[in-house]
Amino acid sequence: MEAGKFFDEKMSRRGLIKSVVGAAGIAVLASGGLVSLSKAEAKEGPTEKWPWPYEKLDPAKTAEIAYEEWYRVFCGAGVINSIFSQLRERIGEPYKSFPVDAFKFLEGGMSAWGTICGSNAGANVVTNCIIGPSLKGASEDGMLMGSEIMQWYSDANMPTYTPKDPKVKGEMPKTVASSPLCHVSVGKWMKATGKSLGSPERKDRCARVTASVAYHTVELLNAWKDGKYKTTGVLPAKSFNIPAQSNCMECHGNKIPTPPLAKK
Q1: Which of 123, 148, 192, 262 is most buried per CB count within 10 Å?
Q2: Which residues neighbour 79 within 8 Å (Cβ) at sequence distance 6 or greater?
Q3: Other residues' Cβ atoms within 10 Å of the Cβ of residue 29
Q4: Has residue 128 been placed in a domain?
Q5: Cis peptide bond N-terminal to 159, omega within 30
Q6: Are both 43 and 136 inside the same structural domain?
Q7: Which residues are within 8 A (CB) of 160 and not within 5 positions of it... i.e. 6 or more apart?
Q8: Whether the Cβ atoms of residue 66 and residue 214 lie closer than 8 Å to each other
Q9: Is there a contact between 127 and 221 (Cβ–Cβ < 8 Å)?
Q10: pTM for this model (two decimals)
Q11: 142 in the same domain as 23
């Protein structure tokens, strides 16, 4: 949205504060800046209340949106917008104010550093915004649903979803990453296919992976909405005494740092 158009809507000071807080948390602004937040006003932000309103979505429709969005804002923002754009139309706030395109930086494993796959990161943004922290026990925790999605991503023969009208025709090769990391997932696929990073096939593969993650995320959220969701998500740090995944040896050999044992 253009800056002029934004302020032409005569948004009130309180309305602007709510948008900032609801979209990205309580912004800390320099003295003399646009606005200053009182504690009372900051607490009015929708991020203080979970779960966010959610209506069940069609996984296939969501996947198609995510596929097309990859070619605009790539994997992370593609997953987020495939879900939040529909909820924006059906529900309005807090989704209406959420700055989806700001998450374009999740491309390429976050600013092209090859860390967590952007589609996994985007799915975690969605589950943690909608469900929030644990309110009714472990199965209600958005973080655990996000962890479950990452494990599913690691184990799945990707991509699992085929778009109705793919930009690259023909059979799309599939690989199992055994990791939620971008460089491992993409690297294994490139090695298996002989396709370069800049090839149309690699790009379409990642667009389909984005669609696959969006599809599965909605499947889980729909089950959660129906009260039928029981998470299989775990927090690996509790098992390894360090934030980690279970297949470090595949890439790092004997150079893996050894953490001290947890104190009991």
Answers
A1: 123
A2: 66, 118, 119, 122, 123, 125, 126, 210, 213, 214, 217
A3: 12
A4: yes
A5: yes
A6: no
A7: 212, 215, 216
A8: yes
A9: yes
A10: 0.79
A11: no
Task: Looking at the structure, tell me whether residues 111 and 188 fall in a common domain.
Answer: yes
Domain residues for 39?
10-48
Residues 42-71 have pLDDT tens digits of: 344 444 578 899 999 999 999 999 999 999
Is there a domain that residue 207 lies in? yes
Gap between the Cα atoms of 216 and 205, Å rounded: 17
Q: To which residue do tokens 């948008």 refer?
A: 19
**What whole-number distance in Å separates Cα of residue 133 and Cα of residue 146?**
12
Q: Kindly state the DSSP code that residue 51 receives in the 8-state scheme.
A: S
Give 91-158 as a DSSP string: T-TTGGG--GGGGGGGTTTTTTS--B-HHHHHHHHHHHHHT-S-SSSGGG-HHHHHHHHHHHHHHSEE
Contact 215, 79 (CB under 8 A): no
- How far apart are alpha carbons 17 and 40 in whole angstroms? 11
Tell me the two tokens of residue 33.
Answer: 């800046």
On whether both 123 and 222 belong to a single domain, the answer is: yes
Written as six digits, the tokens of 209 are 């992976």
Q: How many domains does the chain have?
A: 2
CA–CA separation, 113 and 54 (whole Å): 33
pLDDT digits (tens, 9 = 90+) for 238-259: 766 667 676 777 777 777 667 6
Residue 260, in any domain of the structure: no
Are 21 and 92 members of one domain?
Answer: no
